[in-house]
Amino acid sequence: MKNKRTVLVTGGCGFIGANFVRLVHAEKPGWRVITLDKLTYAGNLKNLEGIAEGESYRFVRGDICDGELVASLFRTEGIDTVVHFAAESHVDRSITGPGAFIRTNIDGTFTLLEAARQSWLGGKKKVAEPCFLHVSTDEVYGSLGATGKFTETTAYDPRSPYSASKASSDHLASAYFHTYGLPVRITNCSNNYGPYQFPEKLIPLIFNNALNHRALPVYGDGRNIRDWLFVRDHCEAIVRVLDKGKDGQCYNIGGNNEKENIEVVSLICDLLDAKLGCGTSGQPRRSLITFVPDRLGHDRRYAIDATKISEQLGWQPKATFERGIEETIDWYLANRQWVEDIVNGSYREYYAAMYKQLASGESRPKINRREEQQ
Ligand code: NAD
Ligand code: DAU
User: Fold this and answer.
1) Which of 91, 259, 325, 328 to mutate to test the pocket of ligand 2 (most atoms within 8 A of CB)?
2) How far is CA 30 from CA 58, 204, 235, 277, 345, in A?
3) Ligand lying closest to the C-alpha of residue 188
């Protein structure tokens, strides 16, 4: 029966991967999913709580760089579809420690592509309609000025070790299509937000600090722009590319929703004030906003032109930012323990090292408040 797939989801215990597995579990009952995840600091089995192992789901803990493991999964599980999320994904960590990004994002993608090639093109038993969907980012296109948007033909110009490693992996995926005829599709998506995002990223980090009346670190002047997309819309776009996309094609995915960082941070403050009140200080949470030294090489603006996926595959984002951010904040409020478990673990050291300037006097930041800058 068409519609059945055996999908290897790499990085299924991370933010987007877990949302994708949940979507498929709910809406694609004919699909069997095998999650392969190393469970790095960013991977969390709790993200998939409630999805039981059985006929249609299996979890394998392992490294995408482990060629033997990956090849054996192709051999034994009859995988016909790969949705490749696994990556080191945080730009700041790529600046302080790029090695892991080169290994996972480049070597790991190469290992998966090679296993798919051997299995789908090299073996005697042919797989019907295989598909390797490589999940990538808009950051490969570099940084925009005040106008313009990234299209699928925008030249690559990555500027951080993270985006350079993702660009390399995109080029490898594309080379496997052109050279070997491996059925590869690539998606380049803008910034996601929603449930299960690790609190090193802007939105959950600001949520957690604002909830606890701690300083809210905003890099540089706070005017960098990201094009925010609710994670469920991204996952639906990926399903659409699997169902209707064409091999050898790249699809840009975006929310058509550009916001300056300072707007996003202020909105989270206002939402929390409205839902919980201002707390014992009586001060609105916006007063916690603290401008801190900028990220090295900080890309100024990203914006996706998603015309191709809209016109060719009929995909459009459904969530407005206002609705998506409210749903997100409500999810984090209802799942405070999920956040607590993370921020009370090794995250503490990460936060202390990354946000040294806030380490002392956290609740009363001394420097760089916007009003002090003006
Ligand atoms: P994440 O950091 O939340 O999750 C990454 C997952 O990959 C984790 O579960 C981790 O344990 C796993 N992993 C890491 N290294 C591994 C390895 N060597 N072997 C097996 N598993 C490994 O990332 P995310 O935000 O969910 O991003 C998923 C993918 O989407 C990435 O490829 C990222 O580049 C891309 N992307 C993310 C965004 C975004 O806004 N978050 C936007 C566009 C594209
Ligand atoms: O554009 C897609 C990319 O979006 C993905 O490929 C990445 O995996 C994902 O991490 C994300 O990258 P960004 O660097 O844009 O996301 P981040 O949440 O780290 O930062 C968003 C913006 O907020 C960025 O301009 C930096 C700023 N920022 C971030 C943090 C963590 C702050 O001002 N303060 C902070 O503390």
Assistant:
1) 91
2) 14, 33, 17, 46, 38
3) 1
| Per-residue pLDDT of the chain in tens (374 residues, 90 and over written 9) | 455 899 999 999 999 999 999 999 999 999 999 999 999 999 999 999 999 999 999 999 999 999 999 999 999 999 999 999 999 999 999 999 999 999 999 999 999 999 999 999 997 778 889 999 999 999 999 999 999 999 999 999 999 999 999 999 999 999 999 999 999 999 999 999 999 999 999 999 999 999 999 999 999 999 999 999 999 999 999 999 999 999 999 999 999 999 999 999 999 999 999 999 998 889 999 999 999 999 999 999 999 999 999 999 999 999 999 999 999 999 999 999 999 999 998 999 999 999 987 865 454 344 444 443 33
Tell me how far apart the alpha carbons of residues 177 and 250 are, in angstroms, rounded to a whole number: 12
Which residues constitute the domain of residue 93? Answer: 5-198+228-253
Assigned domain for 79 exists: yes
Q: Which amino acid is at 120?
A: W
* Residue 303: inside a domain: no
How many domains would you assign to the chain? 1
Residue 298 inside a domain? The answer is no
Which of 179, 116, 167 has its CA nearest to residue 139?
167
Q: Whose CA is nearest to atom 32 of ligand 1?
A: 85
CA of 219 to the centre of ligand 1 (A): 23
Residue 223 in any domain: the answer is: no
Cα–Cα nearest to 79, from 105, 51, 58: 58
Tell me the catalytic residues: 138-139, 162
Provide the CATH number for the domain around residue 165. 3.40.50.720
pTM of the full structure: 0.96
